[in-house]
UniProtKB/TrEMBL annotation, chains A, B:
Species for this entry: Caulobacter henricii
Keyword vocabulary terms for this entry: Hydrolase, Metal-binding, Protease
InterPro entries reported for this sequence: Cyt/Met_Dipeptidase (IPR051458), Peptidase_M20 (IPR002933), Peptidase_M20_dimer (IPR011650)
Record bears the keyword Protease: yes
Keyword Transferase found: no
PANTHER family per UniProt: BETA-ALA-HIS DIPEPTIDASE, CARNOSINE DIPEPTIDASE 2, ISOFORM A
UniProt-recorded Gene Ontology molecular function terms: metal ion binding; peptidase activity
Alphabetical list of SUPFAM superfamilies matching this protein: Zn-dependent exopeptidases
A GO BP annotation: proteolysis
Domain Peptidase M20 dimerisation residues, every copy: 258-401
Membrane spanning residue stretches: none
Top-level lineage group: Bacteria
Protein name: Twin-arginine translocation pathway signal protein
Amino acid sequence: MTNTSKRTGLVQDRRTLLTGAATFTLFTPGLTFAASGDLAAVRKAAEAGFDASVKRIQDWIALPSIAAENRDMDKGADYMMALARDAGFQQVEKVPTDGHPGVFATLDVGAKRWMGIYFMYDVKQFDPAEWSSPPLEARIVDKPGFGKVIVGRGAVNQKGPEAAFLAALHALRAAGRKSPVNLVLVCEGEEEIGSPHFHQIVSRPHILAALKRCEGVVIPAGWQSPSNGGVSVNLGAKGIVELELVASGAKWGRGPRTDIHSSEKARVDSPAWRLVQALTTLVTPDGNTPAIDGYFEKVRPLTARERELIGLAAQRMSEADAKRALGVDRWIDDLPWEKALERLASQPTINIEGLVSGYTGPGGKTVLPGRAVAKIDLRLVPNMTMADCVAKLRAHLDKRGFQDIEVNVSGGYDPTETDENSRLIRAELNSYKRLGVETSVYPRLAGSWPGAVFTSAPVGLPAGQFGLGHGSGAHAPNEYYVIESSNPKVEGLVGATMGYVDFLYEIASIR
Amino acid sequence: MTNTSKRTGLVQDRRTLLTGAATFTLFTPGLTFAASGDLAAVRKAAEAGFDASVKRIQDWIALPSIAAENRDMDKGADYMMALARDAGFQQVEKVPTDGHPGVFATLDVGAKRWMGIYFMYDVKQFDPAEWSSPPLEARIVDKPGFGKVIVGRGAVNQKGPEAAFLAALHALRAAGRKSPVNLVLVCEGEEEIGSPHFHQIVSRPHILAALKRCEGVVIPAGWQSPSNGGVSVNLGAKGIVELELVASGAKWGRGPRTDIHSSEKARVDSPAWRLVQALTTLVTPDGNTPAIDGYFEKVRPLTARERELIGLAAQRMSEADAKRALGVDRWIDDLPWEKALERLASQPTINIEGLVSGYTGPGGKTVLPGRAVAKIDLRLVPNMTMADCVAKLRAHLDKRGFQDIEVNVSGGYDPTETDENSRLIRAELNSYKRLGVETSVYPRLAGSWPGAVFTSAPVGLPAGQFGLGHGSGAHAPNEYYVIESSNPKVEGLVGATMGYVDFLYEIASIR
């Protein structure tokens, strides 16, 4: 029996999965921690807890905390606290910020090592009309080629993977085992608006002191590739700034303060045209390269090792799959696959997330809008910083006479980088290898997460993602997370849970 | 007793207004038609019909026909037909078009002359949340400084003034009088989307033949100035083209077909940036002058007479009032009042009505939109034509490589001009003068109406607006129309009704 066929047995059918013994053997070869009998017991507990774990995800999805809409934020923090207590964290506290509250919790089992875990309890906005089932109902649906999935807002981003991590703690306790490492949980409710206050949480003296004891910090993830079950170990991520550029008659002193009849355009200036003119100066004519004065000063080119890693990843990943998933026929400048991946990892961007001005409904309406807004995100690469980029944007606009255009930053954080040779990254690679998962080390995620809060001063820790399992549709309709996989290469919820168990043991024992 | 004090009596209080005799004298001096006793009887009938006339407006507002939303269009045409029959039109027919139906009606009293009347039965879109009272309830509200007004969508644009015209026909009949002229009514339901099919209505042979008998065509209006009761007689109006410019991954062959995660910007082109780049080429850097290749070729500069008329209007009108009403501190290029008015009348415009792309809700959302739309209106001056302008826009974009940007025209019409010495304009001036209303002859309305359908081939008639009374808020929340004026310089519904009676007699008798 090969590993693959065993794993087929594991995921194809829940009844098979729950028989336990056959699937347990998947995790036995090469285990580095002492009592492999422990693992069998923990797995049994994870399987027995499957229904409770699914319900834990569903109940959590039913409470959508959305910072952008100030929706259920305090409730969300309370719920997060209850989840932490329920999973065995002994000290759990709500951490106020200038924005929405975070949560800090510790689980001290007297182990030698400490591990940091980052959670977000917030989710992205959603429009129920775009969904195939109500996004808060977290329905279990048969998704052809994937298996049984939970469909709901936050399913994969990030409640499903986070709940899989909590399930690992429940399984350890149910099996009568202690966590192999002590845990520090830091959690925020503003990840989806760019984590504007998360640094306030981690820099509280007692939280900072707890984090500084840790080997590193991971955010639970469920990003196994549906094609080969592979996982990326990312050595960092781009930074992000989210902001609105606002042109208005009120600030400008020209144009109208509110929407007026469009026939007035012949004698009245237009804030919408002003916004367009300002936007045009920010990028090259193809819209692809930032043209803000001095914007590339701090950009560090890819190292030889980073290019090597991208080259290896390019061979493992399917360009056709990527294009299909994105609905894209060609990359910028018709770049070949490896060059497109290099661009993705190495280039800062200025993206228009949204344009809003005047009349936005069906058909037309003859107004001259008093206000025009571009929703923008900037993605930053090392060694750019959020503060420097925002200052350069402001200076660039000012220099061109656009002093009136507001730059309203709603959130963001610096790029993050973690050493390939850190204990955290090596433990991830060891765990994935033992679990039979094809791994690609990737120099930098093009997406962003507030890892810089951990990797930068004052915390200064390795940080990354870890997790088996699969979901997709983050920020989109019909977001899902696989709980029972019909794909032999991808784990379901129990497999993801056991992945965290393995990883914690690996962190406990790695040299 | 001066005219003004009499008119104060007329409008200050409905009870006074309904006493009749004192107010009737306002209209007697200088009447050109024979039986001035007729007028007293008609006025009594108009006053007696006040409640019915108000209800006619309210009931009409309760049925909002909105072409952009395909809302109640056929019902609206049927309702219009019933209103025409009720007012005495003998022949009333629905006129199908490639879009929404129009209405054609005639009232043949065997008079020597025929007059054309243009109605629109559609109204602009509305958002009830923005209104102080439900926009379809047509509530009667005391508006300080104005009097009793009907608040509702379509109140002034154009149901109130149109209903005042119908009230004139009802009053004539109730007083046992025939209309002094025969009438041709042409009506459409697509004015608010740029009258894309109105030419199909007027070019039907029997409708065209009926129109060609007319002295001219007027649309009822209620635009007396609240400051001095003055009215403009407009010798024309700008043309308009409404269109959407659409950039999309689907058409472009670059960028995504749908919204994707914004981190992809580093390797994927952006339709939103493409739209911004294309827009930038359409106007001068200040956003104020069209920069489409060859766009000014057909633009006819103001004549000496037109400049003279604007100069006279500038003296009569208050710049401060205009700026206050618009919420504007300065005109384009800080032009002085008269030059701003010249610019308003003489310059073609390219206006952004709306921008829509990607995420448009509160806060941000990290998407790279697959589609971006600019809602645009072009205002045309003589001798520009809609067809030529759209062709030049297309050629301009194509020449710059923007072949993929869609130009989706939803409606529009050419500019319209009517001879100052036509019988229609002279009759308007005579009526206004007799009614004691300060009149300013204005060369060209910056707004647009489908008058070109009448002034151009094949119809070729003088066309304009006529009406006393006041309302405002067209296309905006809390649109209103005054039914009982507390402003001594402005007429209410009965005064507006009697204005139409006077005008019809004037058309009947003018040399």
